Amino acid sequence: MFKYVNVLATAFVLAVFELPCTNATSAPTSSKLSGTVELCAERVRPGLGAVTQVDRANSATQIWVPTTGSNFNVNIDFDAGTAQVFGQLFPVGGDKVADRLEFNATLSMQTGIDDCYCSQPFIAGPPSNTKYKNVNRCGPIAYSERKPAYKDLLLCPHCQKGQCFRADTSVRKHVSGIPKPIYSDWVFYETVDGSIGGPGLEKYRSQIRQTFKMVPDTIDSCTIDTTNLPVPQLYCTDFDIPENGYGFGVNGFNQKCGLSFWYNCAEDRPFLPPKNKDVKVHEADLNVNLVTCTAAPTPTPTCGPTAFFEAELVNNNLGGFCGGDSPTKAFIEGEDCGDGSMTPQEIRYRVSDNIYLVVTNTSEYTPGIGIGGGLNNEGALNNGLVDNGKFGQINLRHGTSVDLNFAFVNGGGSPVVIDELSWRFFDLDQSICPCNFTTCPVGIGGDEPINYCSNCDAEFPREQLRIPMSEVDVVTLSDGLIPPVDSRICQYQDMTSFLFNSRAVGNGDDNPTDPENLDDFQKSLLVDLTYTDVSNFNASYCIINGAGTVGRNIIFAFNFSECV
Questions:
Q1: Who has the most CB within 10 Å: 40, 206, 377, 490?
Q2: What pLDDT digit, counting tens, does each position of 51-109 carry?
């Protein structure tokens, strides 16, 4: 439960631009914030968004607002020094489904005005940090050129639109009814981490390209970045009932409780116009009033199957190797897919309206060299989707292994928990030489025996899949299907993992083309895994032996029931 402790408790009469008759002239002289509070955000006024995209003159180019029944949340934890800002936004006049934007940001390293290097001269007046007195007012350029002695101090935001003057009881233009402000209690956050996603991201990025022509049209993501911009600021005199409190201009536009900050997409920063060598223009503002959340009616969920063959490829750059049909950049065969900071090193699939599957390598990844001329000889160009999008596929070079993480996230990058996930790896086979046994040899303690498939020379590659025991709930090979089919895979285990080894020869002609229509041979080469309450899991893929620099492919598909 949130707790707001006033050293001097004073009741306020509600006063925000619809001015009351009463003339409250004082506020608590100091306060202490603790606990947590969950609030909602609304735009500060018509004509301005909760998020507003801007041009280099800071004029609005596109505004994004919450809509009725869709909360835009601000959850604050004063003890942890963090605030989470998340929810759905829609462009004014846009499509409420196709243009939905998912905003997700975590503000952290909470601090106070004593750590500010510069701001408006009447914000703190002056704080205990004597360094602050040397520069009472400055902007991003002056801040970037500050002396080394002030390096650790923050660039705090301006109090815009004259709101600090309106709240200051010592000036002639003070607005009657607004209590004396305590700017020294404003909360600042040193870091911001998060992202913007959802189907509306395409519209968001289109506006960026129209405004800033140098930003490449190959960028299709947005990682929130506040480098060399004023830090976020937040304040309310009454976090319990923010409608009764005051923010004294903290949101940049009025006297209501609020939060504000500027930001860019990190992917765009190298291409944005400079103000000087360190400072770029900014692409967007977040300015919101803080209000009590209004509980929305709980919709009756509708559930239906979601299958991988409905997926859309969003990004294809596993380990920095650009895959075939990559939406992010025209690929160069066998070469890196651009700057890793610009193109996320992942394969990302959109598997439903707001659920993405993100595949990343957690160990070194080495695809085959794309020499062409065969199903397995295209290297990383094999990665992505195959068979009209019915399977995902990853290529790996002979004699190497890779640890992979498969994660389900929403458009804002937050984990999505799947109640029950049915996942299958297909086509676990080997090249040219089959193992000369019909019954899998027994290993010591369940491990793969040393003489496994010893009849095949080292030049002939075979495949191995490793699945952590602690993550998976049910493991099934084809002999456990209904009706059963003799499996052509050998299953072993060590202390932590299940191991699945190929033993049958396969080629491109026998590969599956539809996960729901398999012949017996294709079934015999599958590994069926069931996970419950899972948002991500791990798997390791290995090509044992093999000559040359070409590779082999592992393919996969899944289904789960999604409730919306």
A1: 490
A2: 999 888 777 888 898 876 567 899 999 999 999 999 888 887 665 667 889 999 999 99
Single pTM value for the model: 0.49
Q: State whether residue 184 is helix, strand or coil.
A: helix
Which amino acid is it at 458? A
- In contact, 323 and 393? CB cutoff 8 Å: no
Cα 48 from chain centre: 25
Query: What amino acid occupies position 539?
Result: A
pLDDT tens by residue, 171-201: 444 455 556 555 667 888 999 999 999 889 9
Residues whose CB is less than 8 angstroms from the CB of residue 447 and which lie 6 or more positions away in sequence, other chains included: 492, 493, 494, 499
* 385 strand-pairing partners: 392
Q: 556 φ, ψ to 5°?
A: -150, 160
Secondary structure (3-state) at 561: strand
Taking alpha carbons only, the member of 398, 336, 295, 326 closest to residue 69 is 295
Question: What is the mean pLDDT of the segment spanning 510-527?
Answer: 91
Q: How many CB atoms lie within 10 A of CB 402?
A: 22
457 burial class (0-12, 13-18, 19+ CB within 10 angstroms)?
Answer: exposed
Q: Which two tokens stand for residue 234?
A: 């937040």
Residue 559 in contact with residue 529, Cβ under 8 Å?
no
Q: What is the rounded CA–CA span in Å between residue 464 and residue 439?
A: 17
Q: CA triplet 221, 225, 230: central angle to 5 degrees?
A: 150
| pLDDT surpasses 70 at 32 | no
Q: Where are the strands (E) in 55-183, listed by range?
A: 60-65, 72-77, 82-91, 101-111, 116-118, 154-155
- pLDDT tens per residue, range 358-368: 999 999 999 98
Question: In DSSP terms, which residues pair with 555 in a beta bridge?
Answer: 393, 426
DSSP annotation of 456 reads S
The pairs formed by 482-491 with CB atoms below 8 angstroms and a separation of 24 or more are: 485/520, 485/523, 485/524, 486/524, 487/524, 488/429, 488/521, 488/524, 488/525, 489/428, 489/524, 489/525, 489/526, 489/527, 490/440, 490/441, 490/448, 490/452, 491/440
Rounded Cα gap, residues 146 and 135, in angstroms: 9
- CA-CA distance, 435 to 69, in Å (whole number)? 61
Amino acid identity at 97? V
Q: Tell me the C-alpha distance between 314 and 325, whole Å.
A: 10
Distance CA 238, CA 369 (A): 62
Confidence of residue 424 (pLDDT cuts 50, 70, 90): very high
Place of tokens 């193992």: 435
